[in-house]
Design goal:
This protein is α+β, with helices and mostly antiparallel strands and 438 residues long. The protein has 14 helices and 16 strands. The chain starts with a helix and ends with a helix.
């Protein structure tokens, strides 16, 4: 890992172009980067373990050969994408509000909820994510496109480089973000150093509104600190795929193997007796006729043996044991991830207590996730010089009628704002609007 102190040393030595290229190379070779790429494959329902699975057969020489005749269905599941979306949407599906004031939310802009949701889900998938505040909105950088430079002494993010390539025939593009501005670079293929393609520019554009509704730029300035926030997906600081991959692989392999066995095992196979003297071509013609006409004569007179016979056998593929094992793994995946299996809420009527019990694992995982979200939002507010406490309204299935009755039964003991905040079908932002209209 190259640090902010390494970056400062490169600046002092005039070797910044080589430093950027080296930092990107080392980042793409790191374990965290490789794990993030694998997590992306699972998120896109492309399980590499299943997709790379190949059946082999061994010859008498013990050399393995690819079995081209065996069925090789590859059926990856969508667990990882579904569970990360569930956790993220559960906490952030209703957006983020700020207690006591709508001014903070207005300053963050109309796109804040969407951009922050994207950042939070990438943090779950990769273990961490980054976002640049441009003055108007968040620009999200995944771990696979951003090299962070942390301060050795404080651990704070002090600089970083975003990199990307449109396709293999184009140079690698990069932007170096520092506290005093951003600089664009390009790295041609095979080159050990980056080439600066722009001057360092401040982050903010200053100006005045013109009379015709336009904007006239008058200057540029910086924020006083690096305008990039950093977020972890959990307190473990690792991808949510860690620990889940073996279970997902087991489920996908068994599911794929089940389909392969159904194709490889004929519903009926035949054993031909006392026909050892038949030539291979005769045997094939015999079995073809039996399959086509369902009648064939197995007579080996003249071959010096008894008359032949044909017996049909049916081969059953184990079903109940595999289904039981798939259900066990499915339950283990949801339990290990801290997700909500909707089957627990499948009954026609559920009390609020039963619903709360089903949501308990998801609530516990969301508590940890909420702490990471709050920390990232507080970083952003610090950049903007704002103060506020984020409020989340979790997006859950609820017995709305029962919860509403409970709140209204205690209405005489509560003030109007408290009543509105506890009603399950009113969002935090709607509470603020309702109170303003009174």
């Amino acid at each position: 890992m190259l640090t902010y102190q390494d970056y400062e040393a490169a600046v002092e030595a005039g070797a910044l172009s080589g430093f950027i290229a080296k930092a990107i190379r080392e980042h793409t070779r790191s374990a965290a980067y490789r794990e993030a790429l694998v997590a992306d494959e699972y998120d896109h329902q492309r399980n590499p373990t299943v997709n790379n699975y190949t059946k082999f057969i061994a010859e008498h020489s013990a050399n393995p050969l690819v079995n081209l005749t065996a069925a090789n269905n590859r059926i990856p599941s969508n667990f990882f994408h579904q569970l990360t979306v569930q956790r993220c949407a559960y906490l952030l599906g209703n957006g983020v509000s700020f207690a006591g004031s709508g001014e903070v939310k207005a300053r963050l802009g109309a796109r804040f909820d969407r951009d922050f949701y994207q950042m939070a889900r990438l943090a779950l998938i990769h273990g961490e994510a980054f976002a640049l505040w441009s003055g108007e909105r968040l620009h999200v950088f995944p771990l696979t496109q951003f090299v962070p430079f942390y301060d050795v002494h404080t651990g704070a993010l002090r600089a970083g480089a975003r990199f990307w390539r449109l396709d293999g025939g184009r140079p690698l593009s990069a932007v170096l973000y520092a506290e005093d501005g951003a600089t664009d670079y390009q790295i041609p293929d095979g080159e050990a150093a980056a080439v600066a393609v722009s001057e360092k520019r401040p982050y903010l554009t200053l100006g005045i509104e013109t009379g015709d509704g336009g904007f006239e730029a008058t200057g540029r300035e910086n924020f006083g600190k690096l305008p990039i926030i950093h977020m972890y997906g959990s307190g473990l600081r690792q991808s949510a795929l860690c620990g889940m991959r073996p279970k997902i692989d087991a489920y996908d392999l068994i599911q794929s193997g089940f389909a392969n066995d159904l194709m490889d095992c004929a519903q009926i196979y035949w054993i031909v007796e006392n026909c050892g003297g038949m030539r291979e071509s005769d045997l094939r013609d015999f079995l073809n006729r039996l399959t086509r006409d369902h009648v064939a004569v197995a007579d080996t007179r003249g071959m010096g043996s008894e008359a032949g016979g044909v017996k049909p056998y049916v081969q059953e593929v184990p079903f109940e044991s595999r289904m039981a094992w798939l259900e066990f793994i499915r339950a283990s995946i949801y339990e290990g991830f801290g997700g909500l299996d909707v089957r627990a809420l499948s009954a026609a009527k559920r009390t609020a207590t039963e619903i709360d019990a089903a949501y308990q694992p998801l609530d516990e995982a969301a508590d940890d996730f909420e702490a990471q979200c709050t920390d990232a939002i507080q970083q952003l507010l610090g950049i903007l010089g704002l103060e506020g406490e984020p409020v989340y309204k979790r997006n859950r299935v609820a017995n709305v009628l029962e919860q509403t009755r409970t709140v209204m039964m205690a209405a005489e003991l509560l003030d109007r704002e408290t009543i509105l905040r506890h009603l399950p079908w009113i969002t935090v932002d709607e509470v603020e609007e309702i109170l303003k209209r009174e």
